[in-house]
Design brief:
heterodimer, A: elongated, B: alpha+beta, 10 helices, flat
Chain lengths: 127, 238
Amino acid sequence: MKRLLALTLAILAVCLLLCVGSMAMQHTLLKRAHAMVTDVFTYAQAEDPVRAREALTAMAAHWKRWSGVFEIFADHEDLHDVKTHLIEAQLTLDYPDVEDFYTALSQLGESLDHLYEQESLTWSNIL
Amino acid sequence: MLTLFLRGMILYIVMILTMRALGKRQLGQFQPYEFAMTILLADVISAPMESVSTPLLHGLLPVGAMIVVHGAITLLSMKSDKVRAFVSGKPEVVISKGVINQQALDRLCLSLSDLLEGLRGAGYMDIAEVGTAVIEANGTISAFARSDQRPPTTGELGIDAGYEGLPMILIMDGRIQTHNLTHIQRDEGWLRGVLKRRGTSPEQVYLASVDTHGQMLIQRRGGGVEVFEVIEPTKVVW
């Protein structure tokens, strides 16, 4: 009985640690990524393509650095979506039609939001 | 592909460890909550095994959650009869003094043919032989013969059968079981001496055991069984 109690408590502790750790880390990293996307949008709106590209490159570097960690916790398909939209945004930045760029950027923001919301502890997620 | 192969191995090991952590009860007797857990366990483990895009943790964390809930239910069941009755149900007597309790069968939604089938499974062809039958909490039927239908015990016949305990396996497929030898307070030298007197050695023996009457059974490789006394019954210590 003592063994079962110890085992149950140990597994509970490990699970809680993993859940809270993953939630905190993902929220921090995704918040940072989202802020970078907002920066890109602001620079693009201000018609400053050089700084927009710099911000987008910084976002890509941030994503590349942490994507390995994300892969431990998040669905790989969702991570792939973020990567695809990020590449689309980088490619369409030089296009004459800015609509393509804004579409790619909004899809990037949306896929980051999706990751963020999936990890959030909300009633809608639980139910 | 290699990832799937490695994941399969990891998850199989996790499954074995989980089953071991749940204890032996899980394998032999399913209470309703254990049955539910076993079904869920198989399903949850298989998800990350099939798809590389699903993180391994998405399979492992629900397994951890189930172990925690299972542990909590088991501990509460051990502490409280009410909790145990709620999660596992109670045994129900369906035959008492040879009479079928129809109300109990109705409560359990069991038909007469279900009961007869269960009794046949318990080794009773004729319901007239059964004095008491109980549907256990795990759904199995335990049946007991009427006192006038069962064979007499040695106690009833006034025969002293002596103590009967677990026979100790001393050699399995030529390998000496040192733990069991220690348990009967003998050593390898003693065993080799016994076998030498019978013209053999441990390597030539397929199976050797000694029972609580001090009788040793030897089966040599290629057949040939011998049974002889090696320990005086009064000196049997296990």
